[in-house]
Design goal:
Blueprint: H1 3-18, E1 33-38, E2 47-53, E3 61-66, E4 78-81, E5 83-91, E6 96-107, E7 115-122, E8 125-126, E9 130-133, E10 141-146, H2 153-167, E11 174-176, H3 187-197, E12 206-208, E13 215-216, E14 219-220, E15 243-247, E16 250-254, H4 259-263, H5 269-283, E17 289-293, H6 308-320, E18 325-328, E19 334-338, E20 350-353, E21 371-373, E22 378-385, E23 388-395, E24 400-408, E25 414-417
Parallel strand pairs: 10-11, 11-12, 16-17, 17-18, 18-20
Antiparallel strand pairs: 1-2, 2-6, 3-4, 3-7, 5-6, 7-8, 7-9, 10-22, 13-14, 15-16, 19-20, 19-21, 22-23, 23-24, 24-25
Helix pairs in contact: 2-3, 5-6
This protein binds fe (ii) ion (FE2).
């Protein structure tokens, strides 16, 4: 036989031994990949799981059972059938098409504080079993906050998410203030994100608000609502990017400041719908703590930037309902301060700008910043235990960079402690 024929026969033999179609050029196959947990609006009794496969897998399942000390018997599981959506993404500068089926399950009817195991897949092809714990109804929790990951996700953002996980392995969720990737729609950048997140993503729920880099030509990245499963309690047309979650005694709210060309038109739908919605979710709120996350900073670290229309439209609402903390990104530097545009208001809301990825700049000279940082990558651990909110900002090498507490005296007053 000629050498070429030998090689072809050998390759065929290998394929037969493997017994399944082989993924071609990064196309997903039968095995589940990009598995990620997301918070639902009822995080103590449910959680969302999303993954993808090649298009040959036309349905997906999630198997769930309480965690135990003994070996896992799959037959003891409750099975949830996923909602499956075919989608074509594009990868690389060449815009090569990637055909996949996205599968999404919401695991419901769970016990607060319970520890569970799950796996996703179908037929002969399953993920490993992941172990996770739901939050208890009270007793305190912590979460991680990341400013923009955005670029060099596999090579350089990976160490941030891993250091954060090492610092806070019991965190209830990880929160992202937008610009998850650099070029909206790019499937290869999403691959880098998932390579960085590794087994953390299927074990710790991820919560995100979109940034301008998660939008392209006025449309949100098609990955946003298919590769993730976010709460659908926002205004029409902005579901999955504008939403809230009640987590123990916290109401966490995502305002989509990347929509409508960064809310450029103050009378446009994206601005007015979100203002009305925000007012109503704050008016009806009964949670002790309120944190708002949005991509654009209310106060910029950059001397050349100022999102005045964001403040003009949203700050009176945040102040009316005494929001505690506003977590943002976009400026690629660190700034933290408590300030108001209204001279009649005693500032109480703490505004933070941060960055987690390696695209980092100088913080400017604006005097709203009580603490600032230039050319550093950070992550934050925020814990809420009863009447005390503790905020710790760490640099990527694990050193404490900034810290404060807010204490609630329960008589309508909250006290900031630097
Ligand atoms: Fe941005």
């Amino acid at each position: 036989m000629r050498m070429k024929t030998v090689l072809s026969v050998s390759l065929l033999a290998i394929l037969l031994v493997l017994g399944r179609p082989v993924a071609i050029l990064g196309q997903p196959g039968l095995q589940p990949e990009r598995i990620v947990m997301n918070l639902t609006e009822n995080p103590s009794t449910s959680v969302a799981v999303t993954w993808r496969t090649g298009t040959a897998v036309q349905e997906g399942f999630c198997e769930l059972q309480p965690a135990s000390a003994t070996r896992i018997n799959a037959a003891d599981s409750r099975q949830f059938r996923a909602r499956t959506t075919p989608v074509r993404y594009f990868s690389g500068a060449e815009q090569l098409p990637v055909e996949v089926n996205q599968h999404a399950c919401i695991l419901t009817g769970l016990t607060p504080g319970g520890k569970y195991l799950y796996r996703v897949g179908n037929g002969e092809h399953w993920s490993e079993w992941f172990q996770f714990q739901l939050p208890a109804l009270d007793g305190g929790f912590s979460f991680i906050y990341f400013g923009d990951p955005q670029s060099d996700l596999r090579s350089q953002w990976s160490r941030v998410v891993r250091e954060a996980y090492r610092k806070s392995p019991d965190c209830g969720f990880m929160l992202y203030a937008g610009d998850i990737i650099n070029r909206a729609g790019r499937d290869d950048e999403y691959q880098q994100l998932f390579d960085a997140g590794g087994f953390i993503f299927p074990m710790v729920p991820q919560v995100m608000t979109p940034g301008n880099h998660d939008y392209r030509d006025g449309k949100i990245d098609p990955h946003w609502n298919l590769q993730f499963t976010f709460p659908q309690n926002g205004p029409a047309g902005l579901k999955g990017s504008c939403y809230f979650v009640d987590y123990q005694n916290l109401r966490l709210i995502s305002v989509d400041s990347a929509a409508g060309d960064e809310l450029e038109d103050e009378n446009g739908y994206e601005m007015t719908a979100q203002k009305n919605w925000l007012d109503s979710v704050l008016r009806t709120n009964t949670q002790e703590w309120v944190i708002v996350t949005t991509h654009l900073p209310f106060y910029s670290t950059k001397d050349s930037r100022d999102n005045a229309n964001l403040r003009r439209n949203f700050q009176p609402i945040l102040e009316k309902y005494k929001v505690d903390l506003v977590l943002t990104g976009h400026d690629h530097a660190y700034g933290r301060g408590s300030v108001s545009d209204n001279p009649a208001v005693k500032p109480s809301i703490v505004y933070v700008v941060s960055v987690s990825g390696p695209k980092i700049y100088e913080a400017g000279s604006k005097n709203w910043m009580q603490k600032k940082g230039s050319n550093i990558q950070l992550f934050q651990e925020i814990s809420i235990r009863g009447d005390v909110l503790k905020y710790n900002a760490y640099t990527v090498d694990g050193k404490l960079f900034d810290a404060f507490e807010i204490r609630n005296n329960q008589r309508g007053g909250k006290k900031f402690v630097d």
